[in-house]
Specification:
By secondary structure, this protein is mainly alpha-helical. Helices cover 65% and strands 0% of the residues.
Length: 233
């Protein structure tokens, strides 16, 4: 699935009243422009949301938050790669379990590096950025990309990341809800059956989500639903 198709799917599940908001409309245009950069460079239209000359106070508020989250998410990904170098990780082509442990070590060290930073002013925002860096891995070209030989599966990677926070982390539930929403979006985009009835609290909800992922991986439903979807598109 291309980025544009994913954007269309996301919009489909967005509350319609939100779509009337001009800031949301402009944000959608901005994202559509951003994905064109993968093929060809063009200038950022400053009539669209931008950090340099925000068009309204509301835009300034959200752009600054989004910018900070983006920068921390990218920093986390770069720290992850740096950790492979610092630990001199050498992959073993015959041992995927070992390779996954190396990835886990890079993830957990990058997490600590960002969260323990002395200049760290806003732990919640940094934590959220790290989770988002992991959550975006759900939305790649093919849903079966969540299963990986060398890296831990994406769902496992996200849940492991939540564990790094520890239960004392302020507003941990808010982070867990964002993860749960991302899981739900993934299920909806790929027509994966799930029920909304369900959990008494967020931990139970995430446990149910993980059972769905386990099931998908066992039955290869991910691939089947992708094929079905491809016929629709
Ligand atoms: Zn890695």
């Amino acid at each position: 699935m291309t980025h544009n198709q994913i954007i269309k799917e996301v919009i489909k599940y967005t509350n319609n009243t939100l779509l009337i908001n001009p800031l949301i409309q402009n944000t959608i245009k901005l994202v559509e422009w951003a994905v064109t950069l993968a093929d060809k460079y063009s200038d950022h239209d400053i009539n669209l949301p931008n950090p340099e000359k925000p068009n309204t106070d509301e835009e300034k508020f959200y752009v600054e938050k989004t910018n900070a989250i983006f920068q921390d998410a990218i920093a986390y990904i770069m720290y992850h790669e740096c950790m492979h170098l610092i630990y001199n990780h050498q992959y073993d082509k015959n041992d995927d379990t070992y390779n996954k442990e190396l990835e886990k070590e890079a993830d957990s060290s990058a997490f600590k590096f960002i969260m323990d930073n002395e200049e760290n002013q806003d732990n919640f925002q940094k934590g959220l950025s790290i989770v988002i860096a992991n959550v975006i891995l759900l939305f790649r070209a093919h849903p079966s990309d969540i299963v990986s030989k060398r890296h831990p599966d994406t769902d496992i990677r996200i849940i492991t990341c939540i564990d790094y926070f520890g239960e004392e982390f302020p507003r941990l539930d808010a982070i867990k809800y964002i993860v749960s929403l991302a899981f739900e979006l993934f299920f909806r985009i790929y027509d994966i059956p799930y029920k909304v009835e369900r959990a008494n609290d967020i931990n139970e909800l995430l446990n149910i989500d993980m059972v769905i992922f386990d099931d998908l991986k066992k039955q290869d439903v991910i691939r089947q639903s992708f094929n079905k979807r491809e016929r629709i598109l």
